[in-house]
Structure formats: structure tokens, C-alpha cells
């Protein structure tokens, strides 16, 4: 299935709210990704996502609408050669290879655009789909921190996957 990575636009608000307001997505995200996902939260997200130069957060457009998001977040201080990768995709499009391909595109973009040597992602131990997508995109499991996260009343494992710049 084809998709396009592009900047977010204010007219993405209806599809953003429609797809993001899903407990099956929110359960795999940090609490900064709210549930319910309201229009107010969506406007705030689009404003934040369009505020960076160079671009850091992209809409994943599928079938003509914003059906997910992916971002690369350069770190600071002693972690300044690292960037964190975060992403989500609307549930109707899961299992089609979209996220794996989008991860690959953003990794290439990140290494070309930012002065970094490592890109990492931190899926929950319960998020098997995300773990598989990262592995297919060339990420390696660097660590598992057992029962360190607390989400929806339960403790979860935090995994750290990373890919490093070659050459």
C-alpha cells in the first residue's frame, strides 16, 4: 500500500481526530498522546508539528488523508548525537508494511538532516507490532527495562531499539 510523508496541515484536523481518537492507539503511546483525542488537542498538535525547521514531524498520508504521524526528535546535552523516533498509524492500516517503510524513510532523512549518529525508539513490551516494524527497518534491540513504565494502571516493560549511522 502506498503512502506519502508530508508536513501536517490545518485541514488534516478532521482525519487526525478521527483516527487518533482510538484507545487501541493511545494504549501504545505516552500519556502526552491523549485519549480522548479532541479537536483542541489536534489543533495543538498540528501547531507544534509545523513549528520546527528543519521539519521533524510528518503526517503519514494514506488514501488521500492523514492516517498517522512519524517524527524524529533530536536530543540535547550529552545525548546530542541521538534522536528519538516516534510514530503511530491508524488502526485500519496496520499490518500493511506502511510503518516499516515510513521508519526507513525517516531514518534516512534523520541521518541526512541532523548531526546525529544514532536513532532510537522505545516501544512498550506489549507492542509486538511496533517491535517487528523496527526490526524489519534494521533496528536492533539494545535493552529491556522490566516493569519501568506505568500506563493505564499497569506496569510495562520499556524496550530500547536503535539504528546507527553507517560509515
TrEMBL record:
PANTHER family: ACETYLTRANSFERASE-RELATED, N-ACETYLTRANSFERASE DOMAIN-CONTAINING PROTEIN. Residues 3-166 form the N-acetyltransferase domain. Pfam families: Acetyltransf_3 (PF13302). It comes from the Bacteria. This is N-acetyltransferase. One of its GO terms (molecular function) is acyltransferase activity, transferring groups other than amino-acyl groups. PROSITE patterns: GNAT (PS51186). The keyword Transferase applies. Keywords: Transferase. InterPro entries: Acyl_CoA_acyltransferase, GNAT_dom.
